[in-house]
């Protein structure tokens, strides 16, 4: 029996950026005991800032909440976009080259939020650092990122996220083989996530122990 944790995120979301240490700690602490996966949940116009000044205000608030020694950059801000499609396409496309870890999307996120590069509009910029981080040919990565199949995948995972009727990214979803589920929408601190994983793993261990002693339930 297994526990799986899925991280629904947008590559350019600042709150997803602040949650990365929690995601990394979960993977470190529960390595070999939990299956981990991230999926794209595109932000749309309802969740995007309407001005650069508003974006800076959000960054100051979240940076203070997370006790950050640095402030995120807003040089990249584009007020006319309804979604940040390009960087998310690049991150998803890297999967098709066997890169299923966090390297590519972190490279894009850091280049945008820490360095101010315009990766949200320019897919070439998004692919540049991503290709280097993953050791992928940039042109091949771009070709795949522009394919209809990749966009279809991130539209599908975004629809999955909306179907849960949650409002904040990241959304961490804990699913176990015994049918338990826990959903954390908008959490960026690790403590409640660790407590939940430990509780769910303990329940799985009980089920396994009971099955070893009593076998499967009688048929109906």
What does this structure look like?
The protein is α+β, with helices and mostly antiparallel strands. It has nine helices and four strands, in the order βααβααααααββα. The chain has a single domain, classed as Glutaredoxin. Strands 2-1-3-4 form a four-stranded mixed β-sheet. Helix 4 packs antiparallel against helix 5. The longest helix has 24 residues.
List the helices and strands and how they pair.
Blueprint: E1 3-9, H1 14-18, H2 20-29, E2 34-40, H3 52-65, H4 85-93, H5 103-113, H6 123-134, H7 138-145, H8 148-163, E3 171-176, E4 181-185, H9 191-214
Parallel strand pairs: 1-2
Antiparallel strand pairs: 1-3, 3-4
Helix pairs in contact: 4-5, 4-6, 4-7, 4-8, 5-6, 6-7
How would you describe this structure in keywords?
220 residues, 11% strand, Glutaredoxin, alpha+beta, globular
**Spatial gap, N to C terminus:** 23 Å
CATH architecture: 3-Layer(aba) Sandwich
Strand arrangement in the largest pleated sheet: 2-1-3-4
Shape: globular
Helix content: 40-55%
Structural class: alpha+beta
Assigned CATH superfamily: Glutaredoxin
